[in-house]
Specification:
alpha+beta, 7 strands, 8 helices
């Protein structure tokens, strides 16, 4: 009888222990589930297919993916809850997160058409060189385009920071074409602008350098746009006679970065 009683007591103690463990586990789970999300406050600095990038007051960048980027304008201020952290960022790459809720606290509505307007301006300028009646206007627009790219100038009220990375790449590509047309249609024109205090004569290399730098940065977090940019550069280096020596001297980065661009330049990288 005593042995039976002891076994019963042990059983009761074990049952109580199990019930206590279940209770603590459930309580802990409820606390985790009910824990409020971290909320980021910042400004949208860029966006791409399926994502936006925001920068907080400490200059940290966060890429929020799996969203409809067309709902958000660059320059808008937002609050975003952090659901999950997918990948921690670094100095060249934003931290990738998901968010359950994104609230626009101050919309920058004027930027909604920035990409379309800037590209239209560049393409129109490029086409104007084919019309002798419009070449003088195109020549003056060349100054505005260079200022827009490198001297914080504005086109239609927009700065370079108001457009997406995708548009920046396209603008640089078209600008390279416009620079070539300036050389062919108005030889010596860029040299005549030297008294402005701005550099226009070496603008071709500045455009190439900007394209290389921007593409290298984009490849850190946007594989699709990275591939498009690299493919386009393969066409650009042939169309505008860009030599490997020029690229090598312009690329800033590691030996690995230089190797990547050599493979792109030589056509070895698919």
């Amino acid at each position: 009888m005593r042995i039976s009683t002891i076994y019963k007591l042990i059983g009761i103690i074990l049952l109580i222990g199990i019930l206590f463990w279940v209770y603590k586990t459930m309580t802990k789970s409820e606390k985790v589930e009910n824990k409020p999300n971290i909320v980021l406050t910042g400004t949208i600095t860029n966006k791409g297919e399926g994502y936006i990038i925001i920068k907080d007051s400490s200059q940290n960048e966060y890429l929020i993916n799996s969203i409809n980027e067309t709902n958000y304008a660059i320059g808008s201020e937002v609050n975003a809850s952090v659901a999950t952290i997918i990948e921690q960022g670094n100095k060249t790459k934003p931290t990738t997160i998901t968010s359950n809720e994104i609230f626009v606290t101050k919309e920058n509505a004027k930027n909604k058409n920035a990409d379309a307007e800037i590209l239209a301006y560049l393409k129109e300028t490029e086409n104007d060189f084919e019309d002798t009646n419009k070449q003088e206007e195109a020549k003056m627009r060349f100054i505005s385009i260079v200022d827009f790219l490198f001297y914080e100038g504005k086109i239609n009220g927009y700065t370079l920071n108001d457009v997406t990375n995708k548009t920046k790449l396209q603008v640089l590509k078209i600008a390279l074409s416009i620079d070539s047309k300036i050389e062919n249609t108005f030889p010596g024109y860029k040299e005549s602008l030297s008294n402005t205090g701005k550099i226009y004569t070496g603008i071709k290399n500045k455009i190439i350098e900007s394209y290389l730098t921007l593409t290298t940065n984009i490849c850190e977090f946007d594989a699709n746009l990275c591939q498009t940019a690299q493919n386009d550069f393969g066409e650009m280096k042939d169309a505008f006679s860009i030599t490997w020596n020029v690229i090598r001297n312009l690329i800033a980065g590691t030996t690995e970065t230089l190797q990547d661009w050599y493979e792109i330049y030589s056509g070895k990288k698919e």
